[in-house]
Structures are given as structure tokens and as C-alpha cells.
């Protein structure tokens, strides 16, 4: 693998593949019948940040899980550049996801027995990067999120905002073109949330596709593009 060096300040990231969904839908079957969690939806995600807003239960996480290929659609497909994510085999999809996607969840999902530095190194270890290079890359990423002084801390020795910034550093380890964030500030106080959002906004400005799920309209206002979801129906704006 190649690790792309840190971008020049304000520079555009080259070679980010387009993210397109075609006729994408998801119906869940449960004891009480069927739930159309996502109605057929066609959209090309532009570079920059797209906020996905909607009330609880409207289908936001369903959409994100489909975009990531964690879940299989009932109809349609997800394409990243020339690659149809939906028809890839499960192992190929996992490899593709590791190389092209970063994830930030409401809970940071850091590995509790690994230090901040080791958590950031983890995806690079999976990618087979030699120890010296992955240490240097992880240090660079921790500095990017302002946590060079916390490299040796375990997750439970970090504040919620610090842990979320480590999670962002980890999501960036392989310099993905697509970042998917599901309520990343949901558990943070507003000041810490703003810091995390400004990091994500900066990454979007560099030309990545950042899909930010939120039920907070103030947060959504920070994004260049917006989608609204209501009862599984996605509309622009
Ligand atoms: N695995 C599942 N099985 C059955 N129904 C589900 C499942 N996941 C989500 N749903 C239903 O699909 C709808 C959308 O859920 P979700 O995408 O999680 O909403 P949101 O993230 O906007 O809160 C809800 O009605 C939810 O109950
Ligand atoms: Mg959700």
C-alpha cells in the first residue's frame, strides 16, 4: 500500500473516487411484517461534506450502513468510482472498505487495551505497513488532531472529545477518500463537538466525501450539502 503524505495546507486531495448510489433501498422483515427503512434513492455524493438529517428512526443509519457495504440493499447498488461495492465478495468488500473508507461513530469504538498511538496504528498494521512507518504516520495523525501529547494514553485515560479525535486520526490512517460519521458529536458537550466538527469540515474542504449523520440542524448547517430523511424517503436540501 501507499500512504499519501499529509496534504499541503489548504491543498486539494487528488484522486478521490466518486460515491454514487443507484435505486438504493432497504426493507427489513420483522415479526410484525416489513419495514421500508429506505425507499429507492439515487444520488451522487459531491466532494465535501453532506449532512444527512432526520428524526430518530427515519433511516439515517440504514443509509450509512448501506453506503459502507455493512448491509446489503434490497434493491440497487453503491458504486465507488468504477467499483460496484454491492457485488463485491465479502472479503473484497472488507479490503476495499479498509482502503477507501474511514468511520467515526457516536461512541469512539477505540480498542480499550491499546494506547491512542496503537489505536491509530491498528489499520496500518492490518495493511502491512512496517512498524517504523506506521509509528511515524500515527504520530503525524495524532499531531493533526492536536493530541501528540496523549499518544501513550489508554482510551479510559482520555476525555470523550480526545477519544473522538483519536478515532478521527484512526479513521484517517489510510487517507480514505470517504469518511462516514454517524452522530459523531452526539456524546460530546457543545464546545468539544465544535472541535470535532471543525476537524471533519477541514477534511471535507480538502475534497474528501464526508457523510455526516446528525439530528442537529445547527450541525447540518455547517455542511456544504444536505439530505433530509423522513420515513425512509431521502430528499435534497
Ligand atoms: N435490523 C433491523 N431490523 C428491523 N428493523 C430495523 C433494523 N434496523 C433498523 N430498523 C428500522 O428501520 C427504521 C430506520 O432505522 P435507522 O436507520 O436506524 O434510523 P435512524 O438512524 O434514522 O434513527 C426504523 O423504523 C428501525 O426500527
Ligand atoms: Mg441512527
From TrEMBL:
Residue span(s) of domain ABC transporter: 19-236
Highest taxon listed in the record's lineage: Bacteria
GO molecular function: ATP binding
InterPro entries the UniProt entry points to: AAA+_ATPase, ABC_transporter-like_ATP-bd, ABC_transporter-like_CS, ABC_transpr_LolD-like, MacB-like_ATP-bd, P-loop_NTPase
UniProt keyword Signal present: no
Gene3D superfamilies (UniProt xref): P-loop containing nucleotide triphosphate hydrolases
Keywords, in A-Z order: ATP-binding, Nucleotide-binding, Transport
Protein name: ABC transporter ATP-binding protein
